[in-house]
């Protein structure tokens, strides 16, 4: 009886290192077609032809494996003494982007020849491109690969950009910086001139190009979180905390406006409450808090109006949490008329 096929791991390397054309004996074999690329749902007619007169290497003793699993004999047909045919219908997407391993074996299990099957879909049009500039020093973009995304084939994505009215196409080089479909342009960017940005997707079955995004660096600026966030008690008021911070220093030399948000939560909760009406102040008083409770506070910044830009700006990340506790009720007597829920700039 025929021996079991070789272990799976060596077969997985065939499409990476190259499919062998010969086994350990003097005979050789060829699979045709070699390394085909097919759409999902396609059929494949393949042949394994043995050359030479080595015993045991005739078509009647051959068999096929796909990704290390022996294919049912009813899928094969002997064409002549040296050629075994294979018919596969309604192919599924490749299990590995480097190609599925179709291997022709001799009766004793040795590998005679191998072929890589690339079964998948052409790339779809990338969409939803979004970009931001950290402190006007760079540009980072990310995108969505397509409506379905998965092509079952290795698909290469290239972010291209150029100045809108002149200049040549440039290709971003630092990929996967903030996720699988992203790229970072670290320097040499122009201000006051719009850029055109798009993404090209390519694989063995075709290519697709996104719509062009036009933007000005000044319109997509974000910054570091506000530094030096301090949270302190407001005298003996048991229901209030004062929050102060510093404007992001990286933008201090540029003409811009800023608005801030604060969020806070109690120590044993994961639910944040957001204060939206801080405006461009760098201090705020939180009121209506629980006495004797530890609160965590964070602040973020939205720089807008840089050099007169009319865009809304992009929020920074939140600052590191800063903790403080409100006084307990028995720590002091509250001055009359100081309780409440009003929020506003700290005095």
TrEMBL record:
<dbReference type="InterPro" id="IPR007110">
    <property type="entry name" value="Ig-like_dom"/>
</dbReference>
<feature type="domain" description="Fibronectin type-III">
    <location>
        <begin position="125"/>
        <end position="220"/>
    </location>
</feature>
<dbReference type="InterPro" id="IPR003961">
    <property type="entry name" value="FN3_dom"/>
</dbReference>
<keyword id="KW-0677">Repeat</keyword>
<keyword id="KW-0964">Secreted</keyword>
<dbReference type="InterPro" id="IPR036116">
    <property type="entry name" value="FN3_sf"/>
</dbReference>
<protein>
    <recommendedName>
        <fullName>Cytokine receptor-like factor 1</fullName>
    </recommendedName>
</protein>
<dbReference type="GO" id="GO:0005125">
    <property type="term" value="F:cytokine activity"/>
</dbReference>
<feature type="domain" description="Ig-like">
    <location>
        <begin position="20"/>
        <end position="110"/>
    </location>
</feature>
<dbReference type="GO" id="GO:0043235">
    <property type="term" value="C:receptor complex"/>
</dbReference>
<dbReference type="GO" id="GO:0097696">
    <property type="term" value="P:cell surface receptor signaling pathway via STAT"/>
</dbReference>
<keyword id="KW-0597">Phosphoprotein</keyword>
<dbReference type="Pfam" id="PF09067">
    <property type="entry name" value="EpoR_lig-bind"/>
</dbReference>
<dbReference type="GO" id="GO:2000672">
    <property type="term" value="P:negative regulation of motor neuron apoptotic process"/>
</dbReference>
<dbReference type="GO" id="GO:0009897">
    <property type="term" value="C:external side of plasma membrane"/>
</dbReference>
<dbReference type="InterPro" id="IPR015152">
    <property type="entry name" value="Growth/epo_recpt_lig-bind"/>
</dbReference>
<dbReference type="GO" id="GO:0005127">
    <property type="term" value="F:ciliary neurotrophic factor receptor binding"/>
</dbReference>
<dbReference type="InterPro" id="IPR050379">
    <property type="entry name" value="Type-I_Cytokine_Rcpt"/>
</dbReference>
<keyword id="KW-0393">Immunoglobulin domain</keyword>
<dbReference type="InterPro" id="IPR036179">
    <property type="entry name" value="Ig-like_dom_sf"/>
</dbReference>
<dbReference type="Pfam" id="PF00041">
    <property type="entry name" value="fn3"/>
</dbReference>
<keyword id="KW-0325">Glycoprotein</keyword>
<keyword id="KW-0732">Signal</keyword>
<feature type="domain" description="Fibronectin type-III">
    <location>
        <begin position="225"/>
        <end position="329"/>
    </location>
</feature>
<keyword id="KW-1015">Disulfide bond</keyword>
<dbReference type="InterPro" id="IPR013783">
    <property type="entry name" value="Ig-like_fold"/>
</dbReference>
<dbReference type="GO" id="GO:0004896">
    <property type="term" value="F:cytokine receptor activity"/>
</dbReference>
<dbReference type="GO" id="GO:0019955">
    <property type="term" value="F:cytokine binding"/>
</dbReference>
<feature type="signal peptide">
    <location>
        <begin position="1"/>
        <end position="25"/>
    </location>
</feature>
<feature type="region of interest" description="Disordered">
    <location>
        <begin position="320"/>
        <end position="347"/>
    </location>
</feature>
<dbReference type="GO" id="GO:0097058">
    <property type="term" value="C:CRLF-CLCF1 complex"/>
</dbReference>
<dbReference type="GO" id="GO:0001657">
    <property type="term" value="P:ureteric bud development"/>
</dbReference>
<dbReference type="GO" id="GO:0008284">
    <property type="term" value="P:positive regulation of cell population proliferation"/>
</dbReference>
<keyword id="KW-0675">Receptor</keyword>
<comment type="similarity">
    <text>Belongs to the type I cytokine receptor family. Type 3 subfamily.</text>
</comment>
């Amino acid at each position: 009886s025929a021996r079991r096929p070789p272990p799976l791991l060596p077969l997985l390397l065939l499409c990476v290192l190259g499919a062998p054309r010969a086994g350990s004996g003097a005979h050789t074999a060829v699979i045709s077609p070699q390394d085909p690329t097919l759409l999902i749902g396609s059929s494949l007619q393949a042949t394994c032809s043995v050359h030479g007169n080595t015993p045991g290497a005739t078509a009647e003793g051959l068999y096929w494996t796909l990704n290390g699993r022996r294919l049912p004999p009813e899928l094969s047909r002997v064409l002549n003494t040296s050629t075994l045919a294979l018919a596969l219908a309604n192919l599924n997407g490749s299990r590995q982007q480097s190609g599925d391993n179709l291997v022709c074996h001799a009766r004793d299990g040795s590998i005679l020849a191998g072929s890589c099957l690339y079964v998948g879909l052409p790339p779809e049009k990338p969409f939803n491109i979004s970009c931001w500039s950290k402190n006007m020093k760079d540009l980072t973009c990310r995108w969505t690969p397509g409506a379905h995304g998965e092509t079952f084939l290795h698909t290469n994505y290239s972010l291209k950009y150029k100045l809108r009215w002149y200049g040549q196409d440039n290709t971003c080089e630092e990929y996967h910086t903030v996720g699988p479909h992203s790229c970072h342009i670290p320097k040499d960017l122009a201000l006051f001139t719009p850029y055109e940005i798009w993404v090209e997707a390519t694989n063995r079955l075709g290519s697709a190009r996104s719509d062009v995004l036009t933007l000005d660096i000044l319109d997509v600026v974000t910054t570091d979180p506000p530094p030096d966030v301090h949270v302190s008690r407001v005298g003996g008021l048991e229901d209030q905390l004062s929050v102060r911070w510093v404007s992001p220093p990286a933008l201090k030399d540029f003409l811009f406006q800023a608005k801030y948000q604060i969020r806070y939560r109690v120590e044993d909760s994961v639910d944040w409450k957001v204060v939206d009406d801080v405006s461009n102040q760098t201090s705020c008083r939180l009121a209506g808090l629980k006495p004797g409770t530890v609160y965590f506070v964070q602040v973020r910044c939205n720089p807008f109006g840089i050099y007169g830009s009319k865009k809304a700006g992009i929020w920074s990340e939140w600052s590191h949490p800063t903790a403080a506790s409100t006084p307990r009720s028995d720590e002091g007597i509250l001055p009359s008329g100081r309780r409440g829920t009003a929020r506003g700039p700290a005095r």
